[in-house]
Amino acid sequence: MRYIAKKGISDYSVLISSHACEKVRYASLELKKFLLEATGFEAEIVVERPENPVIELIAENKYADGFEVTTVGENIVVRGNSERGVVYGVYALCNALFGLEFFTPEYYSIKKGDLPFRQLNITVKPDIPARSLGIAPVYDYIAGERLLPNALRMGLMGMAEDWGICSHSYFKILPPAKYKDSHPDWYSAGDDGKNLCLSNEEMRREFTENLYRIVLDSPKMKYYMIGQEDSTTYCNCPECTRAIKELNGSFSSMVIQFTNDVIREINARLKKDAPERKVIFIMFAYQQTLNPPVKKVGDGFESLYRGDIEENFAVMLAPLNAQSDFSYFDEKNHTSFGKTFYNADGKATRDILLGWRAITSKIFFWSYHVDNTDWFIPFDDWDVISENYRAYVKMGVHYLFEEGSYGKYIPNFNKLRVYVYSRMMWNVNLDPQELINRFMEGYYGSIHVKVRRYFDFLREHCLEISKKQGRPMLYVTYDDFDLMSAAKYWPKDVLEKALELYNDALSSATPEEYERFKEEGAPVMYMLLLDYADSLYAERRIQYASFITDIATRYNYFENCEAVLIPNFNRIKQMAAI
Asked: What's the rounded Cα separation, in Å, for the pair 272 and 306?
């Protein structure tokens, strides 16, 4: 029998190109690391084909992140459709050979021993071609080509990886600090210049020129966001007001027209200056542009925007004001367009999202899965993942970004969330509940049943809040709903019962399991201290406050970050000192 490695000895080496990119070099080092850990064999990485058999890593230049792992004679070939695909292919090879599985970027399972050679024929293509999570520590917002080990190990990319410019980009392309004093009319009237005046032709020419330079200066990038700023307002100057009226009264139509005009001019210039470039430009369907300019016709939608859309025009759907306790595509899911959630202007989220398919077939998606008033509060959307993800594939979603607690690591079962979401992005037909069980058993070991009981108790209470009390799981807060952390939603006896389940799990944990699980009690202690501190015995109050303060210090919650409430942690820190 032939062996890849036996008793720490092997005649295999890892072959990469002498011109290999950073990600392929990283993939070769990962392969070397895990081969050594599994078999005791330290592979040599070579750039010229030797006489002995090799594991060869090859990157192709395609949009998708799929890969193939095959055997050719005694050689093994990992061929990635992209540079990232090579890394993912290496992890798939390691899984096939010795069971490597990442539960978190740092914690994984691996089988050790001799490694027999066997035939391999693995072909994998992700259901969502480009995938990213806005959850620390797999999140990165810097545009361009990035090496993000935490994301790669979970089968992900950075939020802005492959992007020449991303997110809210109007002011990145036309910075107010550079232009506003000399060209105040380029910026929106009536809202202190929080966006651009899209009817201004002089502005559009400069905007187009600046974006074109960005495209030329980032030749390896695929995606370019032409995204309005994060504001609910837009320009109300006479020219914009008249243009909106002429475009069916839809500001979305005006943004489509502006974006499409910019794309058309850049496409014409690229055809002449860089005909090999294939890029996609994206506009936001977000806040004031979430509503598509369409009308419902039978079971479908008809576009009310009459212009021709450029072939590489895409839209990023970002249903900020929708519910998260129902699938976005459930007929009960509601999107608000007012201060109160259920208002006359609200719409079925499904109709909004599917309506955009009448505008363009290129769909990107920016989803939300936390309560952005406070990332420490348990948030339940576990039962809607399958329906959402299968609908994304049916819509043809190319890029998916799941926004959560991105700025700081929050011990609110976010390691579990990264595991489940990342695997669902590759295969939308997986069962989230089975993935939860797999993570629990793989990560928490002997206490996994008790941890699952604690997790389910919190999840079921969130379901009760949304179903019985009528307080939906929302990313933003409305005037007609109390904060999710309010005592009315989390009675003291519920929190005490949760802590009882939490402590029961810890009581039988090994030291390693204890360390992996202990921080997950933080959200419950946090709410007890905020809402019921006066009813806790001093010893317990100080114990919980010290525990939360230690976590807040470790992850720096005393530094400004969206949805990490510094006053709450300062108050808890004072409790710990008493």
From this structure: 28
Tell me, what's the pLDDT at 63? 67
Beta-carbon contacts of 158 under 8 Å, excluding residues fewer than 6 positions away, are 132, 139, 140, 141, 142, 146, 148, 151
What value, to the nearest 5°, has the Cα angle with vertex 438 and ends 433 and 440?
Answer: 95
Positive or negative CA dihedral for 541, 547, 550, 556?
A: negative
Q: Six-digit token pair at 419?
A: 């595991």
Based on its alpha-carbon atoms, the radius of gyration of the chain, rounded to whole angstroms, reads 26
Asked whether the beta carbons of 301 and 354 are under 8 A apart, the reply is yes
Backbone dihedral region for residue 25 (phi beyond 0: left; psi -120 to 50: alpha; all else: beta) = alpha
Query: Strand pairing of 223-225 and 280-286?
Result: parallel
Contacts 24+ apart (CB under 8 A), 304-311: 304/248, 304/250, 304/253, 305/247, 305/248, 305/250, 305/253, 305/256, 305/257, 305/359, 307/256, 307/257, 307/260, 309/256, 309/260, 309/359, 309/360, 310/260, 310/263, 310/264, 310/267, 310/281
Residue 333 and residue 324: Cα distance in Å, rounded?
8
Amino acid at 442: G
Whether pTM exceeds 0.85: yes
Report, as an integer, the average pLDDT of 281-296: 96
